[in-house]
Amino acid sequence: MAKGHRSQIKRERNENKDNRPSAKLSYARVSVQKACYVLDAIRGKDVETALGILTYSPRYASSIVKKLLESAIANAENNNGLSRNNLYVAECYANKAPTMKRIHPRAQGRAYRIEHLTSHISVVLDER
User: Fold this and answer.
1) Percent of the chain whose pLDDT exceeds 90
2) How far is CA 79 from CA 19, 75, 99, 108, in A?
3) What does DSSP assign to residue 15?
4) In the chain, where does DSSP find H-type helix?
5) What is the pLDDT of residues 74-93, one digit of tens each?
6) C-alpha to C-alpha distance for 92 and 125, rounded to whole angstroms
7) 61 C-beta neighbours (distance < 10 Å), count
8) CA–CA separation, 106 vs 111, rounded Å?
9) Spatial CA neighbour of 90 closest among 27, 18, 30
């Protein structure tokens, strides 16, 4: 248990906070595996190259990640005052989110379970 007053504890916790611009999408309707194919393609690239890759990628997840990347770029410009030309994708990852369980009726009164996988996708930018 941390010692000190509540405000002191919060101040110490906020000092260790990551100040890099980022964007996060929760409960995206795409599986982690499918999102990771797209995220692996843009990891480490500068933002202009990453946007080009996402624009012409045929995967469904690329449209989701493209919106998220544009949001992270806007956060960097507006909140942190960083230049768009110097930004690159430092981290991008997808974590498992809750699975939506649905029932599909089948022959002779049976029911098959259908599971819709969801994910939490995060993009973190940094300046070169």
Assistant:
1) 82
2) 10, 5, 34, 59
3) H
4) 6-15, 32-42, 47-55, 60-78
5) 999 999 889 999 999 999 99
6) 9
7) 24
8) 5
9) 18
Q: Are 29 and 116 in contact (CB under 8 A)?
A: yes
- How many Cα atoms are found within 13 Å in the side-chain-facing hemisphere of 6? 0
Are 29 and 122 in contact by the 8 Å Cβ rule? The answer is no
> What architecture (CATH level 2) is domain 21-127?
Alpha-Beta Complex (3.90)
Domain segments of the chain as ranges: 21-127
Contacts of 80 (CB under 8 A, 6+ apart): 19, 21
What are the residues facing 100 on neighbouring strands? 116
Residue in this structure with the two tokens 């309707």, named with its chain if needed = 29
Please tell me the pTM assigned to this model: 0.84
Residue with the two structure tokens 């995220």: 39
| Total length of the chain | 128
Which amino acid would we find at residue 46?
D
Q: Radius of gyration over alpha carbons of the chain, in Å? A: 19
| Unique residue bearing structure tokens 């997808």 | 94
